[in-house]
Amino acid sequence: MKKNLFKIVALFIAASTLSCKKSADSSSSGTSTTPVPDIYKKIYGATDMYVEGNYVVIKSNGLPDHKTVYYPTSNALYENFSGTTFGGNTFNKNPNTISAQTLTFKIPLNPTVASSHSATPLGPIGVSLNGVPFFNQYAGPNQPLTNEVVSFDQYWGHPQQTGQYHYHVEPLYLTTVKASKSALLGFLLDGFPVYGPEENGAAVTGLDAYHGHTSVTADYPNGIYHYHITNTDPYINGSGFYGTPGTVTQ
Ligand SMILES: [Zn+2]
Ligand SMILES: [Zn+2]
Fold this sequence. Notes:
Elements (H helix, E strand, L loop, with lengths): L1 H27 L19 E5 L2 E6 L23 E2 L3 E2 L12 E6 L17 E3 L4 E2 L3 E3 L2 E2 L13 E2 L5 E2 L5 H7 L5 E5 L4 E3 L2 E2 L2 E2 L8 E4 L8 E5 L18 E3 L1
Parallel strand pairs: 13-17
Antiparallel strand pairs: 1-2, 2-5, 3-4, 5-18, 6-7, 6-12, 8-9, 10-11, 12-13, 14-15, 16-17
The chain binds zinc ion (2 copies).
One zinc ion binds next to loops.
């Protein structure tokens, strides 16, 4: 009997020690305990995700989860590719090889329309579901993608000089394997969601200057402004961000 009581007391002490440790950990991490809204959990390629003030912070190594000719041949996801790519062009591989990145996207939890719309920068302008960044419709300052599209791989992405893999156009792996042509594909830095080229079973039409419109979507039953990726220039985003962008560090 006495032995049992001792056991119970010991268990109680052990349990309270554990709970103390838990609270010490969460207060020392410096991050908020606000839960991440479920919609962002669709970004399955994120390596970490948490809420910080009015932003959701999404971390990614930027590595595609699909086969590509741009991985080193030693990588299990390396797959040779030749023939026709985006726009019916003959594929012409660029000299770059994919390498892991350290991307931190900080995007508004409650996106709002900007009073003056800022241009999208070169480099990452958003994050797709697999953690690969979206890039805009330019190869360089005011240079169209004309000469770059030939280097888009089997899933229409390619790496730039530092090995950062990205999508300027429809991420074919997401629209044909992981999700669908009408599904949520990611978010731009202003927090507004990005959808595929179809809606209600047809190619989307009537997009505004920023390449989006406001309507109900499967994920937002109350309606939201959202971008659509189409197969004609400007592909993902038009004349800048619809909303006020957050930040990306790399
Ligand atoms: Zn590019
Ligand atoms: Zn739509």
